[in-house]
Amino acid sequence: MNDGFLRNAWYVIAWDHEIPADGLFARTVLGEPVLVYRTADGGLTALADRCCHRLAPLSAGRKEGDAVRCGYHGLKYGPDGRCIEVPGQDRVPPRARVRRYPLALKNRWVFVWMGDPERADPALLPDNFSCDHADWCYLPGYMHYQVPWLLIADNLLDFSHLSYVHDKTFGGTPEIARAQPLITEIERGLRIAREVRNVPPSPYYQSFRPFDTPINRWIVYDFVLPATLLMHSGGRPAADADDDLRRAVQLHSCQALTPETATSTHYFFQESHRADQGDAQTRQRIFDSLLTAFEEDRQMITAQARNLALDPAAPMLPLAMDAALVRFRRLLQQQLQAEAAAGAAGAAGAA
Amino acid sequence: MNDGFLRNAWYVIAWDHEIPADGLFARTVLGEPVLVYRTADGGLTALADRCCHRLAPLSAGRKEGDAVRCGYHGLKYGPDGRCIEVPGQDRVPPRARVRRYPLALKNRWVFVWMGDPERADPALLPDNFSCDHADWCYLPGYMHYQVPWLLIADNLLDFSHLSYVHDKTFGGTPEIARAQPLITEIERGLRIAREVRNVPPSPYYQSFRPFDTPINRWIVYDFVLPATLLMHSGGRPAADADDDLRRAVQLHSCQALTPETATSTHYFFQESHRADQGDAQTRQRIFDSLLTAFEEDRQMITAQARNLALDPAAPMLPLAMDAALVRFRRLLQQQLQAEAAAGAAGAAGAA
Amino acid sequence: MNDGFLRNAWYVIAWDHEIPADGLFARTVLGEPVLVYRTADGGLTALADRCCHRLAPLSAGRKEGDAVRCGYHGLKYGPDGRCIEVPGQDRVPPRARVRRYPLALKNRWVFVWMGDPERADPALLPDNFSCDHADWCYLPGYMHYQVPWLLIADNLLDFSHLSYVHDKTFGGTPEIARAQPLITEIERGLRIAREVRNVPPSPYYQSFRPFDTPINRWIVYDFVLPATLLMHSGGRPAADADDDLRRAVQLHSCQALTPETATSTHYFFQESHRADQGDAQTRQRIFDSLLTAFEEDRQMITAQARNLALDPAAPMLPLAMDAALVRFRRLLQQQLQAEAAAGAAGAAGAA
User: Fold this and answer.
1) Which residue of A has its CA nearest to C98?
2) For residues A92 and A80, what is the distance between their CA atoms, to the nearest angstrom?
3) Does A95 touch chain B (CB under 8 A)?
4) How many CB pairs under 8 A join B and C?
5) What are C171-196's pLDDT values in tens digits?
6) Is C93 on the interface with A (CB under 8 A)?
7) At what angle do helices C323-350 and C149-157 cross, to 10 degrees?
8) Are residues B138 and B42 located together in one domain of the fold?
């Protein structure tokens, strides 16, 4: 499909804790309704949330052991998506099945693979280690956006916006916008590194520990296809040596965008502090800061999307600060073309 | 028009009591705004609710005797739809008129004929006798759906959904889904009969009279074009003879779907009990049960419609339980084609 | 563009008092987001409210002296629309600029010119004198309509609707609809004059001064392109001579329509009384009457627009009372064609 969605990719569909112990969970991903539930063996299964009969969402039905029964006319499906019972008829037609999606649980994120199941490769899962690591603490976040996912990816690929969107929250200072990031290509993505030296510690940083001198800050993140951000950031007194982290604040953040439809997006996020650098209050304070700042992003990006809707053909002027997002969009286009070519080859092979 | 609406048909536009004694009532039917009001002779008239001048709804104006005056610029129309006064000019142009729709009141349902007035035949009105019959009691219901009418007709044509959508309300048990209905063709529709024997009496049935044994249940309904359901149902102790109704619960239900637009529908309904089998409380209890159960339907069908909107091309897998709805859709197509052919013939005849 | 919007025209974008002393004001005009703010020299500037970089609205940023800084990535623009700073790069690309719109402040109305800046001619500003005149008093009004602007212009071009829409408020009597207006062509518009003699004074007129006899009323207004109404109206005892205004009520009203999008409209309005014919209470009473009556219009026109949306091809029957609106629509078409021809000529000249 040429809808700008990469299909052979893992997408976060939920935080692990969002899937109930004994119920049904539904979320739309790339325009497809997906059902997720737990099986008795401790596993998870993801099925198309759309009965093959009359297209009712299975999530409006009920779980029966490891099976799910449609709440409309009672078709019952096993966790592999095969229909195993059709009320009122003895024989279940072989075509009676719903698509099963490959699914992976990694560090509390539940990922679904939206493309060719043969190609679902756990090695492609992003390294969201701080989501489940004894050394790191966080509160899990979720936000819904009524904008196309690429506009949010743009935002995350250019942190110069911190200086303006978040000048009152995240410690955004003009220095961040001025600091040229170092951008390097990595496997399926980009690494973007930024350092600002000798800046006043923002209230955000002060909230971790009192700094009484200017600080050096670093922000280093990988942004990997389709849309996961994995970031180390922190600050230390400007006088301290670069390898001296004793008085440093260290953070790690995992953020993932999952297109819901062409015009709406799921956003999963956390920012972790070191377990030895804070307590439950710190955790809550970081979470609240994220919410405040990400709401600032949401308002700006939603306003941008409204302007785009008024004139979808309005041109954008590329600037130096767009380096990462331009390169990322190029990577995405390459992958989309590779996928289209593979699809065409597959279709030819099947013929 | 090829919008999937049968035009040469009676559609319920309102319950009789919805039309005020001396005011204007408006409802949109098949995408056309329709005005209904009472005339001094005790009759009812239905006009296009759209002034021929600047298209303002006449229902925003006022009734003047048997005439209606547009509230925008004051054009006055007689109950035949002819304009009889244009403020500021002496002569009323002959083209100044709005369409008058044939209208029929039968057993408290107000029907409007949306097609060729010449073909409006009272013999085609459905037999909604229990809506106005001394032996039967009910409370009138109306519900608005934000889905295409055919999805609701599908629902009504396959009662196997009772076992799942209404398993907690209407006495839906798996036995109903398992019971193959007997489907026979009738004039402009289908008769669908279902019997389930020796099932536990549901709370719904228990609410009419205490059953202390399993019961036999029957559900027999006609579904006639365009979209009226007329149903006898009931239950009696399983031990009683089939023709022994002394300990039976007997119900009759009339339900009608009227497309409002391509994507929204009016739903008129009642379920009657025998006058000698209950009182005002019974009536209220039945009505409340209907509301609860029909709200279950509405939620399921609306969820189904959302899935359809996500992927309008998604295929549906036909199953045995679809027998009636498949046959009904075939009847509808035949009528639509007959109407199109008659329209083409009429156009040719006029040329 | 062929969207039915005249571009070489002044449009009211705001009342003067709506623009903050030191902040940013945004409103969409002809589908284009426009930013307005004050400069240190006491002037006003209007810029495209859409950063040239990623299209974020500049109004979501901040004012810095006479400049505005985008709140997303910090581009800074002077009041001429030229970008004067791009964070993170030394050189500002020459293409980095946003459109500046010609702007004029006249009698408390802020006008923006949406077409070719070369042709922005202050002589084309309407004469809204009573908006800022020692002899006239009013309260300023604004209303938002969810309908295309031409439907509201239609309303203002045919006051026969006063007799029906405003029969309980504005002193609308059938006599107004019956009174044929005298329509004459003026520069870029029409003059529409109506007189009704010997009618009972309406409560509205009675609220200015007690009349104990029938009155003669006059309503004379210019409606000039694109959509400004300038109206003298009043009434005096029927027995008084036409040039005797001693016992007359005199009003002047300025009203302007500004298309927001193809389907929504801004409406600016006031009705002034003579400074020597009332006090603050009078002012408030007139304003409240306007709000009540214009809300009647809004409901009617919005209902009309709904009917149009149900069937955009439904024909309208022209009547005598449409004389002014038919002529006005013709004037508009001529101007639109002239604009299209000039655009084509300009394009040819540029080639």
Assistant:
1) A317
2) 15
3) yes
4) 84
5) 566 777 677 899 999 999 999 999 98
6) yes
7) 140
8) no
> B326 touching A, CB under 8 A?
no
Question: d(Cα B263, Cα B276) in Å, to the nearest integer?
Answer: 41
Looking up tokens 């970031």 gives A231
Is residue B302 a part of any domain in this protein?
Answer: yes
A272 shares a domain with A244: yes
Q: Is B316 on the interface with A (CB under 8 A)?
A: yes
| B300 interfaces chain A, CB cutoff of 8 Å | yes
* Same domain membership, residue C140 and residue C177: yes
Q: Which of B49, B55, B71 sits opposite C316 (nearest CB)?
A: B55
Asked, for residue C2, whether it belongs to a domain, the answer is no
Residues of A in contact with B303 (CB under 8 A): 56-57, 60
Indicate if C213 and C312 belong to the same structural domain.
yes
Closest by Cβ to C53, choosing from A165, A308, A317: A317
From CA C71, how far away is CA C62, in angstroms rounded?
7
Mean pLDDT value of segment C95-122? 97
ipTM confidence: 0.92
Query: Does residue A1 lie in a domain region?
Result: no
Give me the number of domains chain B comprises.
Answer: 2
- CB neighbourhood size of A185 (10 A): 10
How far A70 CA sits from the closest chain C CA (Å)?
Answer: 36
CATH assignment of the domain containing B77: 2.102.10.10
* Percentage of chain C modeled with pLDDT above 70: 95
Shortest Cα–Cα distance, B206 to chain A (Å): 24
Residue of chain A with shortest Cα separation from C74: A164
What Cα–Cα distance (Å) separates residue C110 from each residue in A104, C106, C131? 59, 7, 12
Give per-residue pLDDT as tens, B60-109: 999 999 999 999 999 999 999 999 999 988 999 999 999 999 999 999 99
Q: Does B274 contact C at CB distance below 8 Å?
A: no
Domain enclosing residue B186, as ranges: 128-335
Closest by CA to A73, choosing from C68, B90, B161, B307, is: B161
My answer on whether A88 and A209 are in the same domain is no
pTM of the shown model: 0.93
Beta strand pairing call for B67-69 and B62-64: antiparallel
Q: Assess B57–C contact: CB distance below 8 Å, yes or no.
A: yes
Q: Say whether B87 and C300 touch across the interface (CB within 8 A).
A: no
For B142-162, b where at least 16 C-beta lie within 10 A, e where not — what string? ebebebbbbbbbbbbbbbbbb
Supply the CATH number for residue B305's domain: 3.90.380.10
pLDDT in tens, B281-311: 999 999 999 999 999 999 999 999 999 999 9
- Domain termination site, one of C60, C95, C123: C123
Cβ–Cβ under 8 Å, residues C154 and B54 = yes
DSSP A110-155: EEEE-S-GGG--GGGS---GGGG-TTEE---EEEEESS-HHHHHHH
Residues B177 and B302 in one domain: yes
Which residues make Cβ contacts (< 8 Å) with residue B345, sequence separation at least 6? none
